[in-house]
Amino acid sequence: MKSRRANSLSEEVGQFTFCVAAILENTKGEILLIKRAPDNPPENVWDVVGGAVEQFEDPFEGLKREVEEETGITDFEIVKALDDFHWYQEEPKWDMIGLTFWCKTNTREVILSDEHVKFKWLKPKDALKISNHQIVTSNLKQYIKEKNRLE
Question: What is the pTM for the complete model shown?
Answer without folding.
Answer: 0.86
